[in-house]
Every structure is written in structure tokens, then in C-alpha cells.
């Protein structure tokens, strides 16, 4: 059971009307909502909250006639100059152990395709985040460029001054990159293009400037990491780095490291960004995920740190125990739709006075809202 009094699912796959999906009527096969999860999160000018929900739309029968199929957007033909198609891969060439993706021959390096294509659905919530006010299908964000041909994933929304900035992970055979969107109201968004290139995920823009610059947490990935010296407190692998920018478009990585995994625990053997950092009286509050190795996917939990308000590379405090853990009781009513377990992935935070409203993806399936008292962070 959750240790927080308010902790519930607010949006699940059955809440999505696929007849209004950007893919509707374009595939010669039935699709379904694999997950409605990992929402970008912010407060609108009218006081309500907005979740930008990742909708992973998958083929009901991906394997047919000896082939495994993937959905892809291509720029030629169809609506608005583009259309959705199915690609077929011989099943004997594909590794389908992970329900979210499958590996195909890569000529010496890993190459994968996805079992779903993701698009973003704006869902408006009440001011406390506990009920749905409206679902804005007419404002959905779908692939519109070749670098998004396999989908748009895991939005993170930050308000800096009077402008909203939204980072997304865009997936294609060209690159696995970060794309920026901007908005004056968090409803109508303009794509600003790629801002971080290949294999850089979980970009979180700080909700405020530091010395006149935009700052962001980033998380470059790769297959090669160099060892720390014997006896070091740090574990080599993916870490949360920092970058700054004069305009939110052109980013320079910081020389100093950000948040790194410790050797003392396997619970955070792999880490990455969660909710965009927000400023408090004691510094920047950042929530991030730690992954403990287990089977194929691992166990995802949410942790937190406080960063110095003038130098975010300096960590003031870190919660040693998980802030949020996967909650099987929350997903029990939709148990029949589960395809993963042991995953909570926090993606947004909004100030609500004495507490924060925190948005997460639960089990890569649904959207979870938690009210967390500020006293939890000593604020």
C-alpha cells in the first residue's frame, strides 16, 4: 500500500477512444492501447492541470504469416502529407522476449523495432489532479517528421517565464533524439525540432533560469562506459548530466557531472531523469528514477535530490530510500491489461501549496497521481 494518503490512477487504456486516434482508419489491422502513461505535466492558466499522455498504440496481432509487424509513419501520402504503414520482419530473425520491442539483425550492433507507435494526448484534469475534465483529441501530437517515424514518447513539460517548453523523445531509424515543443498556453504547441541528437533521453528543462541561462538535465546513452578507479563510490553507466543554453535551442553540456549511480546499492544501478526540476527555498528539487536489475526490464522506483540553486552540479541532499515504488494495488482493477510489473516512472510535478502533485506512469500502462507533502523533502 502507498504511504501517501492521495495516490491513485487517473487515466487508463480504456479511457482512450481509438476512433479519434491519429492512426484511425489507416492500418489494415486492429490496434489497441498498450499503455496510456508517462505524462508530461503542468498547470494551465485556468487553474486546471494538464497531462500530455503517451499513448502507445499497438497491433492486436503483431505476429501473422510467419512475420512480426511494426507500425511506422512515413512522409509520403496519407493525411497531412504522411501515413501509417505496417512493416513485416521474418519471425525467425526477431527476438521477441520483451513485449515492448523486438530485435532484428543489425550487422554487428543492436537494432530494434517497436511493437507500438506512441503519440501524445492532452488530458485536462481538475485542479487537484484527481478527475478528468476534458480529453483534447483535437490537440493530439503525432509524428510529422521522418525523425519521429516510430513515435513520440515521454513528454516532459516545464514553464519558464510565460512560456511552456516540452521535451519529447522521438524515435526513428535516423536517430533516437530529443525534440523540443514550445507553447504560449500549453494547449497549442509548435515543434522547434531536434535539440539533442542520437541516444539522449530524459531531457528535463529546469523551471526557471540560472544566471540568465536555461538549464536542463540530460541522459546520454551508449554501449561503452569507462571504469572508475578501484574503490570509487561511483558506478559507471548511464547518469544524469547537465547542460545550459541561451535560448533553449542550443545546448552546451556542463563540464561537471550531475547525478551518478553509487556502487553501494544495486537499486539505482541505472538512473535517469524523472520530473523537471522545480525551485524551492532550499534549492532545485529533482525527482529521478533508479532501476534495479531484474529479469528483462528491471524494477523502476522514484528517488529525489536537492540541487544548489546557483550551481545545480552540487547536490545538497538526496533521499536514500525510494519516494515512490510500484504499487500492485493500484493496477489490480486493470490486472488483465498488465504486460509489465515493477515499474513507476515519474514524469511531472506541480506545486499545490503545502504539497506537490506528482504525475507518474505506472507499469507502462496508466497515469498515476500522488500528493506528496513538502515536509517529505524538508521544505
From TrEMBL:
<dbReference type="InterPro" id="IPR007184">
    <property type="entry name" value="Mannoside_phosphorylase"/>
</dbReference>
<keyword id="KW-0326">Glycosidase</keyword>
<dbReference type="InterPro" id="IPR023296">
    <property type="entry name" value="Glyco_hydro_beta-prop_sf"/>
</dbReference>
<keyword id="KW-0808">Transferase</keyword>
<dbReference type="GO" id="GO:0016757">
    <property type="term" value="F:glycosyltransferase activity"/>
</dbReference>
<dbReference type="GO" id="GO:0016798">
    <property type="term" value="F:hydrolase activity, acting on glycosyl bonds"/>
</dbReference>
<keyword id="KW-0378">Hydrolase</keyword>
<keyword id="KW-0328">Glycosyltransferase</keyword>
<comment type="similarity">
    <text>Belongs to the glycosyl hydrolase 130 family.</text>
</comment>
<protein>
    <submittedName>
        <fullName>Glycosidase</fullName>
    </submittedName>
</protein>
<dbReference type="Pfam" id="PF04041">
    <property type="entry name" value="Glyco_hydro_130"/>
</dbReference>
Amino acid at each position: 500500500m502507498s504511504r501517501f494518503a492521495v495516490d491513485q490512477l487517473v487515466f487508463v487504456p480504456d479511457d482512450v477512444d481509438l476512433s479519434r486516434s491519429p492512426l484511425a482508419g489507416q492500418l489494415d489491422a486492429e490496434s489497441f492501447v498498450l499503455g496510456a502513461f508517462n505524462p508530461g505535466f503542468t498547470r494551465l492558466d485556468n487553474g486546471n492541470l494538464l497531462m500530455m499522455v503517451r499513448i502507445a498504440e499497438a497491433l492486436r496481432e503483431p505476429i501473422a504469416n510467419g512475420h512480426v509487424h511494426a507500425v511506422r509513419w512515413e512522409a509520403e501520402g496519407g493525411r497531412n502529407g504522411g501515413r501509417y504503414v505496417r512493416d513485416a520482419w521474418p519471425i525467425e530473425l526477431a527476438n521477441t522476449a520483451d513485449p515492448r520491442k523486438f530485435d532484428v539483425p543489425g550487422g554487428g550492433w543492436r537494432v530494434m523495432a517497436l511493437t507500438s507507435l506512441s503519440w501524445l494526448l492532452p488530458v485536462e484534469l481538475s485542479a487537484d489532479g484527481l478527475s478528468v475534465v476534458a480529453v483534447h483529441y483535437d490537440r493530439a501530437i503525432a509524428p510529422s517528421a521522418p525523425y519521429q517515424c516510430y513515435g513520440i514518447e515521454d513528454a516532459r513539460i516545464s514553464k519558464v517565464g510565460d512560456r511552456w517548453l516540452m521535451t519529447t523523445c522521438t524515435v526513428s531509424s535516423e536517430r533516437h533524439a530529443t525534440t523540443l515543443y514550445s507553447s504560449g498556453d500549453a494547449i497549442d504547441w509548435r515543434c522547434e525540432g531536434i535539440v539533442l541528437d542520437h541516444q539522449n533521453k530524459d531531457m528535463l528543462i529546469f523551471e526557471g533560469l540560472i544566471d540568465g541561462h536555461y538549464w536542463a538535465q540530460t541522459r546520454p546513452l551508449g554501449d561503452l562506459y569507462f571504469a572508475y578507479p578501484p574503490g570509487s563510490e561511483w558506478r559507471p553507466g548511464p547518469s544524469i548530466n547537465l547542460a545550459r543554453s541561451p535560448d533553449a535551442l542550443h545546448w552546451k553540456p556542463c563540464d561537471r557531472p550531475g547525478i551518478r549511480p553509487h556502487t553501494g546499492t544495486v537499486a539505482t544501478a541505472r538512473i535517469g531523469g524523472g520530473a523537471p526540476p522545480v525551485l524551492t527555498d532550499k534549492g532545485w528539487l529533482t525527482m529521478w528514477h533508479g532501476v534495479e536489475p531484474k529479469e528483462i526490464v528491471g524494477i523502476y522506483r522514484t528517488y529525489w535530490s536537492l540541487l544548489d540553486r546557483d550551481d545545480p552540479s552540487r547536490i545538497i541532499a538526496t533521499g536514500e530510500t525510494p519516494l515512490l515504488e510500484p504499487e500492485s494495488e493500484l493496477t489490480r482493477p486493470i490486472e488483465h491489461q498488465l504486460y509489465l510489473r515493477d515499474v513507476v516512472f515519474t514524469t511531472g510535478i506541480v506545486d499545490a501549496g503545502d504539497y506537490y502533485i506528482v504525475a507518474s506512469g505506472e507499469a507502462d500502462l496508466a497515469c498515476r497521481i500522488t500528493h506528496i507533502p513538502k515536509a517529505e523533502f524538508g521544505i
